[in-house]
Amino acid sequence: MEAEIQKYNPHKIDIGAVFSFRPKDHRTVSVFTPKEKELVFDIDMTDYDEVRTCCSGADICGNCWKFMTIAVKILDAALREDFGYQHLLWVYSGRRGVHCWVCDADARALSQTSRSALAEYLQIIRGGDNQSKKVNITSNKLHPAVGRADVICQEYFKEVCIDDQDMLGNKERWTKFLALIPDQSFRESLEKLMPQCSNSLERWVIIEKEIDQLVAKGQMDYKKGMRPHLISEIVLQHLYPRLDINVSKGLNHLLKSPFCIHPKTGRVCVCFDPDKADEFDPAKVPTISQLAEEINEYNANKANEGKVNIAEYKKTSLKEPVAIFEKFLAGLSKENNMRRREENDAKLDF
Fold this sequence. Notes:
The protein is of the alpha+beta class. The chain contains twelve helices and eight strands.
C-alpha cells in the first residue's frame, strides 16, 4: 500500500464501503452493492454559523472550536453508553471539523435503515434556516440521553455562549436570542429588560430568572409552546452537536482517511483522544511542510550520535496521534480475534 501511494501520489485519500466485488470490477458484474462500512459522523463548524459570532464559514478560532469539543463529548458518550460501541476513532478533518469512525463489528454491519434510525436518534436540532426554535422537548421529563447532553451543555454554556460569543452583547444579538422564546408577550417583556443590563451575563441571568419564575408558578402556557424545559431547549440549540446525518445514514458516502493531508490547509488529519478534547488545538496541528522541517531538525541534532533506526513519524509531532491510532487498532484487532475464535468454536460444536 505504501508503494502504491508513493507511485500515484494522490491529492487526498477517501475511504468508502466494502463491496460485494472488487471496485475495479464494478462494470463487469450485475450486482455491485456495499456490504459493510464503518458508522461515521461528520461535524462541520459551518453548521454553527447561526450560533457563533467570532467567525463564519471556513474560519475557526479557539473560541468557536469549543463547539467541537462539546460535540465530541456528547456524541462519544451517547455512542458508548447508549449503543455500547467501544471502538471509536476521533479524527480532526484538517480544516474546520471532526470525524468519528465507529468501527465495532456490529456497527460496520448496520443496514442503511438501522443507520438512519441511529442518526435520527442522535439528532435533536431540527428545522431549516427560516425556523428560529429548533429544539422542542415535549415530554415532562428529559430523556436520559438528552439529560446527559444537557448536563454537558449547561457546564459550558456561560463560558462559550455568554462570555466568548457574547450572544446578548447588543440589540441585534439579544433580539435573535430571544426569538427562541415562543410566547410573544413574554418575549416582549424580556426585551424591555435587556437595555437595563450592561453585559451578556447580566442579561442571561435575568432571562434565566424570569423563566424559572414562570416554571415555579406553573404559568408556562403549553399552547404557546412554553414548556418547563425551555432553558434546556435554548442551551441545547446553541451547543448540541450539529450532525450531517446524511453522512451517517448512507453506505456509499466517502470520508477522508485519517492522516491524509487536507488539500486546502496542508494540515494532517490527526487522531485525538476524546477524553482530552479540551486540550486539542487545531491551530497546532502540523502541516506537511512542518513535518519535513521537524525531521530535518531531528536528524541534524542526532547527526553526531550515529545512525539510529527510528520511524520517520517518531521524529515529528505526529508521534502522539499515531500512538492513539495504534492503541485504537490494537483494541479493534483484539475484538476481531475474539470473534474469529468464537466462530471457530461454534463450528466445532456437534
